[in-house]
Design a protein that fits this description.
The chain is mostly helical and 417 residues long. It contains 18 helices and no strands.
Length: 417
């Protein structure tokens, strides 16, 4: 029943990635972020009073959906507020707190043994987040520019520049926000959707590879996380260590993405995750500590994949479908997370099977990632046409011919408080 409840939670996360991803592209990052926080608060508190199993599972599914709305929207919003050379730093801080949250949760679960009180303890802080963050967070200027709301975007950039005591050069925003997919101000603007990610050959190839890589990351990451309590030793300590190992993985992901690029970093972490889990199948069950160590290394690789793939996907998908692309990618990761608990139950059939499956998936993904273009230092694609023209053959040209105006606009926003 526990595996079923966890899988249904991940179904909610999957649905939320699609629903809130689309809503965020349509109505803006900020509105959807706070809508997700509010729904999470209401249903999180309600869950503490649900003593029927199926009601509990349903409420948890809604919480899972809002989890995607909060995290994915916040990630895209943060990425769109900074310049290319600061995206990895922002990414690192966001995902580090994901690991810190898991460590705090393990400590809270150890101290609060009644699940109802634990549920309230992790839900009520959303009240503070909603009250404080609304006055701190601005809408994404990139989203505003892509949706013909230039005046509001310029207003935010000027506010940021004033806060950082910088002067915006005249005419900086003259050509911003104009893409091949846009129409003139005042004219109806066509809406983009998931179909646009598979409509043209190059965008389709990049999207499908990215979707599979996310599936593998979710499968290995959540499979090893949920299996941590089944390893030898104290389950609370195992889960704490499983979350703690994410922090150095995210830091290394940040460093490697800036040094060797997004593609090679993702490839390396997939290899670590794949080889570590693959090797477990050769370890006799009596050597439980060795299995635990390899599982921790596998989790390290899977965490590094997530630390890398969020940035990589944000830069691969164009602005007009970025949140849809990230949402669809996250949906694939959640499919992996849904399947993982049941695959790891196959341990009772043949103990190496879950690890053989994880290792094989990760190694195949590592090979496919080589087909993607490098995005380190490139200008974020705005339109679908720009994304279609961006391939491994054009990546260097894209890097060297980034528009000066876009770079300057990024620099005015990168130090936003």
């Amino acid at each position: 029943m526990g595996s079923l409840a966890q899988s249904i939670f991940m179904v909610g996360v999957l649905l939320g990635a699609v629903i809130f991803g689309d809503l965020s592209d349509r109505f803006g990052r900020k509105k959807v972020y706070f809508l997700s926080l509010f729904i999470m608060l209401v249903f999180g508190v309600s869950t503490a009073f649900a003593h029927n199993y199926w009601l509990f599972v349903f409420l948890r599914m809604i919480i899972g959906a809002t989890n995607s709305g909060v995290f994915l929207t916040a990630f895209v919003l943060a990425s769109e507020l900074v310049s290319p050379d600061h995206r990895t730093l922002i990414s690192m801080f966001l995902v580090i707190f994901f690991g810190v949250g898991g460590m705090i949760l393990s400590l809270m679960a150890y101290l609060i043994r009644y699940w109802e009180w634990l549920q309230l303890a992790i839900s009520l802080p959303n009240v503070l987040f909603i009250m404080v963050y609304w006055w701190v967070i601005n809408e994404s200027p990139r989203w505003l520019l892509a949706n013909n709301q230039k005046e509001y975007a310029v207003e935010i950039f000027r506010k940021v520049a004033d806060a950082n005591k910088k002067v915006i050069p005249e005419g900086l925003f003259e050509d911003m926000g104009k893409t091949d997919d846009d129409k003139a101000d005042g004219e109806p603007k066509s809406r983009h959707n998931l179909i646009d990610l598979v409509r043209t050959p190059n965008v389709r190839r990049k999207s499908l590879i990215m979707f599979y890589a996310w599936f593998v990351a979710g499968f290995v990451f959540y499979g090893l996380s949920l299996n941590a309590t089944n390893l030898a030793g104290n389950p609370y300590l195992n889960f704490f260590v499983s979350c703690a190992v994410e922090i150095p993985a995210y830091v290394l992901a940040k460093i490697s993405m800036d040094r060797i690029g997004r593609r090679w970093s993702l490839l390396a972490f997939l290899l670590v995750a794949g080889l570590a889990t693959f090797c477990i199948m050769f370890i006799p069950a009596a050597y439980s500590k060795a299995i635990t160590v390899l599982a921790v290394f596998g989790k390290f690789g899977a965490a590094g994949c997530f630390g890398t793939i969020y940035v990589f996907a944000t830069e691969i998908f164009p602005t007009v479908v970025r949140n849809v692309g990230i949402g669809a990618s996250s949906m694939c990761a959640r499919i992996g997370a849904i399947v993982a608990p049941f695959v790891f139950l196959l341990h009772d059939v043949w103990s190496p099977l879950p690890y053989l499956t994880s290792g094989t998936f990760a190694l195949v993904a590592a090979g496919l990632v080589l087909l993607l273009p490098e995005t380190l230092g490139t200008k974020l694609p705005q339109s679908l046409a720009e994304s279609e023209n961006f391939t491994r053959n054009t990546e260097q040209a894209t890097t060297t011919t980034a528009a000066p105006n876009d770079a300057e606009a990024d620099k005015t926003a990168e130090t936003k408080v």
